[in-house]
Each structure stands twice: as C-alpha cells, then as structure tokens.
Design brief:
The protein has 222 residues and is an alpha+beta fold. The protein is 15% helix and 27% strand. A six-stranded antiparallel β-sheet has the order 1-9-6-11-4-3. Strands 2-5-10-7-8 form a five-stranded antiparallel β-sheet, with no helix packed on it. The protein binds fe (ii) ion. The site of fe (ii) ion has 4 residues, from loops.
Length: 222
Amino acid sequence: MNESEASAKIRGIFPTPVVECVIPNSAGLNFELKQLILEREKSDKGTQHSNLGGWQSDWEFESWGAAPVKTLLDAARGMATQITCDRAGRPVPVNWVTNSWANVNRDGNGNEFHTHPGAYWSASYYVDDGGIGDDPPLGGEFEIQDPRGVAPAMLAPNLAVAMPGGQSIGASELVRPRAGLMLIFPSWLSHGVRPYRGGGVRISVGMNLTPAPQPQTGPTAA
Ligand SMILES: [Fe+2]
C-alpha cells in the first residue's frame, strides 16, 4: 500500500466456526472403535435419517459402554468446553448432554444436507477415512453449505471479498476426512457427506452436545 491509500481493516462479523481437532495417537483408539462398530453393524439393522445408503446406529452409542467410546466422547466434551465461553468471552464450565451414533459408509453411500436441531455443537469423528485422505477421486468429503445462502453471490457471482474465507460465496466448502480428525461445528450449520467411492469403509461417529439446563436463579412464580 502506498502512502496515498487509506488504510482499511476488514472485520469478519458473525463468523462461522468450524473446528478441526486432531486426536493425538488415535491409531489404537480407532482400531478398537472400528471393531466395536463393525461388530454392532452385524446385529443391528440401524436407522435412517439423512443417510443415503450406508449404516447408521441408534443414538445411544455412548451406552454401548466400551472404554474407547468414553475416551472419544470425553475428548469431544472437553473440546466443546474449550471452544465455548460466556458472553464476556470468559471460560465457562458446561455440563454437556450428549447423544451420539456411528456411521458406516461403503461404495456409493453419502448423506444429504441436514442440520441437527436442538443441539448447540455437533461433531464428526473419523474412525476410518476409507483411504479418502490419499485419493481425492474417492469422494466422501464432509460438505458445508454457505449459511448465507445465495445472497452474497446475487449481484456479482464472479467477485469475492478480499479476506480469508471471502472467496466462498453461495457455494459449499469441503473438508476431507482423515482418521483421527474431529470436526466440531454449530448444530445449525447445514452439512452433508458426498458419496464415498472406494473399496474400503468410511467410518465416523456423529455427536450432538447440548448444555444441560441450568437451575433457575431468577425470581420464581408463587
Ligand atoms: Fe450431520
């Protein structure tokens, strides 16, 4: 910038947080979770929500009672607390009510766009990426819709805002899963999963985290 140009600061107001958290040393955890989930799949016909094919367990994954399940859920709750604060920006303890489920996608399986009503944070943890990380044509990406819809692209779809993330207007963003990665995002954020096109299994765990109701501290009715 030369001296005749005015300085400018672009603020990202109302940003959309998408947290990528890599669980350290996850190979052993993933091995145990994969065994547990594939074994469960054999005896449970599963449920149908946003999934386009594939197998999805019930929402009681945590009640399966296995140690690796608790390890994963505790990590998600810890991260949710870390990225949550009070309205003044101060750390705040939160008692997270959690429901969770397992997903197994094979060749051709995906999830249509959806949200998770009633929760605060949602998360996806990748137990097995099905080789997606090494081979882009295999699909299976986590796809996030621009929450502003088409509005930013209505006038000049060939232009973008010169700021980080400003190039994504009215479109979607892709995150390529890899084993050990946990994504945390606001539950209202519309997302889906592109069809997986591989010969392996793409295994993930979905989680919803909601603050437990707080005791009433204000005046109470007689
Ligand atoms: Fe989801």
